Amino acid sequence: MSRLSIGSLFRRPEAGAFLGMVAVIAFFLIFGGINFLKPSGIASWLNVAANIGIIAIPVGLLMIAGELDISIGSMIPAGSMIVAIMSGHYDFPIWMSIIVVLGFGVVVGFINGFLVVHTAVPSLIVTLGTLFAVAGLVLGLSVLITGTTSVSIKAPDFYKAVFGQFIGGTYQVIILWWFAVTAVYVFYIHYTKYGNWIFAIGGDRESARNAGIPTTKLTIILFILSACSAAFVGMCQALLFNSAQVSAGMSYIFNVIISVVVGGVVLTGGFGSVVGIVFGTITFAVVNQGIYFTSFDRNWSSLIIGVMLLAAVLMNNTFRSMALSYAPKKK
Amino acid sequence: MTSPVLELRSVDKSFGPIDVLHDISLKMNEGEVLCLLGDNGAGKSTLIKTLCGVHKPTRGSILMDGAEVTFSTPREAQDKGIATVHQFGGTFPLMSIGRSFFVGVEPTKGWGPFKIYDRKKANKIAVEAVQNFGITRVDDGDRLIGGLSGGERQSLAIARAVHFGARVLILDEPTAALGVKQAAHVLRIVNEAKRRGLAVIFITHQVMHAMAVGDHFAVLIRGAIAADFRKGERTREEITDLMAGGETMADLERQIEGYADA
């Protein structure tokens, strides 16, 4: 009986991601020593993981539904700049800026989703377009309004405490946001019918539509979620560092996609899990930060990440075929 | 004589200037299998899509139980009991049997925003429904669809349609991609659906499969019904000839030989 349950654990989409995470943590424990798992060490990679993780889950859901969103790369600085210009350069109250930040996410997400579902253009190209359009818009407007590409902002204590401060001097408050949204996603994706619908869309869009699933609406909602999440992370960063730059965020595109794929989401859609994406995000963050705890040169971390990504893709295929070929033993 | 479950009256369908279907009239009765035969491009797919609500007829009318109906979406046709099963079962290879059985109509428990998907119930119902159709190899609702054979997938999809109260079952080339044994499997399921009083529309270009289950046959050539007959009224050769577009198989064979000689 126990062998059977181990077998069923291995068929879950997050199995590979979990093994990968354990492997990299073990690797950096051996080469970096225990500092890496002391509170300050944990903070270094947990902060990175939280910022990526909030965006990685909705992007991962889009990938499960068979779409991709790379416009997040310019939505992060857009979120930062909106709050910095509105409440730093001008004196609008922060709550108003927050509404505008999320509203801008809704607008861009809606444009992405609308174009993807109503034209046959692949989402990679559509969001590549909005990536550049939004980046240009933010750069142009901030130079036009403030004459600079970097704006400082001084947020009141309450907003600092909720969105951007260091707890105990090292842990960013966004970690708590990450845990909270992860719990919400896990519930909705794996325990309600809505998750089932997303997997069905990724499995076969046509059949899903015939089964009565509102595929168009759901796809647009997922794009809105990812755009809003990215804008939210940008806003939190501006409040945390008391300033916003136009050019921050492009590296997130790759980091997020790597986290999602390492997390066991199959690129062709229809397979994956929220918990897997969380494991993938932690794995990425550990590799990204763990290198500082070792005596290795920083530049080696990209090599590790690249190899890890390839290994993850291969492993995903293996786990998927294991899941597919599984048949109960004849009794 | 009760009115047919589904009836087409001189239905035309054109896409812009191109006429795809021309003056189609068909009747489908309960407990009968209507075999729709035709070569590639004869308009079979368009006809199915018109029946299941994807396309609206350009002219003519669709009647259910004698009353005229219009479907603006596939969902509407489904709600009225018209279910379509596609060649590959219309299912999701990476989803579990239970989950894909209930896609779009998931059973839930709990209340308000905390309604959760009832996995146990879904799996139990799905497995029972399939086993009722004689597929006893399916006994675990957590298995992924991709692990089933082609015939089992078809059977699952048919069982699903019947479970959700289908009255008209449209099977789009269910046996085309299957081996002999698997196809026999599906044909048995078709007979079972017929026995349960469903009107089945069986689309195929394999005359043997059609003869095995059909009560009523219609041959489609270039968007029009070229022949409409009951079981036993035509021989297999005649049907094959009709499907080849009116030319006899013997003619075709002569042509092929002609090419070979030249």
From TrEMBL, chain A:
It is a multi-pass membrane protein. GO terms for molecular function: transmembrane transporter activity. It is found in: Cell membrane. Keywords: Cell inner membrane, Cell membrane, Membrane, Sugar transport, Transmembrane, Transmembrane helix, Transport. InterPro entries: ABC_transp_permease (IPR001851). This is Xylose transport system permease protein XylH. The chain crosses the membrane at residues 15-36, 42-63, 94-117, 124-146, 166-188, 218-240, 246-267, 300-319. It comes from Flavimaricola marinus. Coiled coil: none annotated. Pfam families: BPD_transp_2. Its main location: membrane. GO terms for cellular component: plasma membrane. Part of the binding-protein-dependent transport system for D-xylose. Probably responsible for the translocation of the substrate across the membrane.
From TrEMBL, chain B:
SMART domains: AAA. PROSITE patterns: ABC_TRANSPORTER_2 (PS50893). Its EC number is 3.6.3.17. Coiled coil: none annotated. The keyword Hydrolase applies. InterPro entries: AAA+_ATPase (IPR003593), ABC_carbohydrate_import_ATPase (IPR050107), ABC_transporter-like_ATP-bd (IPR003439), P-loop_NTPase (IPR027417). It is an enzyme of class 3 (hydrolase). Residues 6-247 form the ABC transporter domain. It comes from the Bacteria. It holds the Pfam family ABC_tran. Keywords: ATP-binding, Hydrolase, Nucleotide-binding. One of its GO terms (molecular function) is ATP binding. This is Ribose import ATP-binding protein RbsA. It comes from Flavimaricola marinus. The gene is rbsA_8.
